[in-house]
Amino acid sequence: AIAQSLTIVKDSLNQLTQPFVSLDTATARIKTLGGESKALAGDFRELSLKMSQDIPIGAGEMQTALYDALSAGIKPSKDGIESFMTSAGKLAVGGMESVGNTVNLLSSLLNAYGEEANQAGAYSDFLFQTVNLGKTTIPELNASLSQVIPTAAAAAANIQNVGASLALMTANGI
Questions:
Q1: What is the DSSP letter of 138?
Q2: Are the C-beta atoms of residues 139 and 104 closer than 8 Å to each other?
Q3: Residue predicted with more confidence, 159 or 110
Q4: Phi then psi dihedrals of residue 33, to 5 deg
């Protein structure tokens, strides 16, 4: 009985501490990027904690996605990262996708079109509009856009035209 009670206590403590361990691990990974990312890692940790209160995504998961954003070339500034991660978080929740995948999608779009982090909201709106007009989902767009966007951006194709084309094709069963 004592062994069983100790196991229950241990499991409960693990459940309580795991989110903080995840958050601290992601923060440590951000510090490995050096430069401005390292200098702002504590601020980014606080941002992830704050955002997890407003968006139903755990702070550790948010911080891990933030690391992915920085690794993908999103510039490490407080305002830019907050704007980018807010857009990625809302896209994840509204689009029923993981925040890691929405970070990947948005950072790929921003990088392909040479945009800054504060433009993530406009790209998120474009993705939702494509879903609303077509017959597709954010996870499906994530898979298909990764194949289309590099070529479309290189050909200087307007992102709204790409989205309209995808919406039209999916609405018509293609």
A1: H
A2: no
A3: 110
A4: -75, -15
Q: Which amino acid is at 89?
A: G
**The residue type at 15:** Q
pLDDT tens-place string over residues 74-101: 999 999 999 999 999 999 999 999 999 9
Report the amino acid identity of residue 78. K
- Rounded to a whole number of angstroms, the distance between the first and last alpha carbons of the chain is 61
* Rounded-to-integer distance, Cα 114 and Cα 64, Å: 24
Cα–Cα separations (whole angstroms), residue 45 to 10, 69, 84, 95, 110: 26, 14, 15, 24, 23
User: Angle at Cα 47 formed by Cα 99 and Cα 88, nearest 5°?
Assistant: 25
Q: Which two tokens stand for residue 92?
A: 């994840």
